[in-house]
Amino acid sequence: MAETKKFAMVVAEGTFDKAMMAMMMGNTAASMGIETHIFYTFFGLNLLKKGAKPKMPGMMRFFTGMMIKKMKGIGLDGYQEQLEMAKELGIKIYACSTSMELMGIKKEDLIDGVTVLGAAAFLDIGTDADMQLFIG
Amino acid sequence: MVIIMDKKETLDAKGLMCPMPIVKLAKKMKEMKVGEVLELIADDVGSKEDVPAWCKRTGNELVSQKEEGGAFFFYIKKVQ
Fold first, then answer.
1. Is A6 helix (H, G, I), strand (E, B) or coil?
2. Which domain range does residue A129 map to?
3. A99, CA 20 to 30 Å: which among A38, A64, B24, B49?
C-alpha cells in the first residue's frame, strides 16, 4: 500500500458550489485513505453552521433547488448528508477563530466535531500536507 | 480473459456519478475480508480512471476490468 498521504483544503466561500466541491473532493480523498483536513474561513464558515443550506452564488441562487434535484438524479447526496459523510469518514474540520469573531459566530452555532483554530495552527497542518487546495 | 472464480459480492453503482462510486466502493471494501473479490459495476466514464487510481492508492488489487454494454466492470481483490 502506498504511504498515507495528507491533504489540506481551505474553503473561503459559503456558496453551494464551493460547499459541494469541498465535500466531493474531501470525501473522495478520505475514501482513498488520504488523511483529509478542511479549514473553513470567511464566508466558508457559514457552511459549518447547524442546518446550513447553502445557495448558488448571485442570481443563480434561485436555481439552487434545481441543482440539488439534478445532483440527486445522479446519486449525489445533498450538502448536509455529505457533511455527515465527511465526519463519518474521519475528515478533520476546522473553523477559523478570527472569522468566527468577525462574523459573530459562536462555537455553539457550529455543528459538532469542529475544531476552532487560527491560521498558524492550520498552516502547520498544511505545510505538512502532500496536497493543498484553496476553494474560494 | 480472466475468469473470476472467487467473486464474493457485487456493488452496482450504475447511475451514480463521481465521487459516489468511489465512496461506496471504499465503504464496501471495509466490510470485506482480505482475499475476497468485489465486482463493481459503474457507468460513470470517470470510473474507468478513478477505480484503478483508488486501487493503487489504497493498495488493493484490480484483478481485471472490462467494458460491456456501456458499463464498466471492475474486479477488485482486497489486499489490506
1. strand
2. 6-135
3. A64
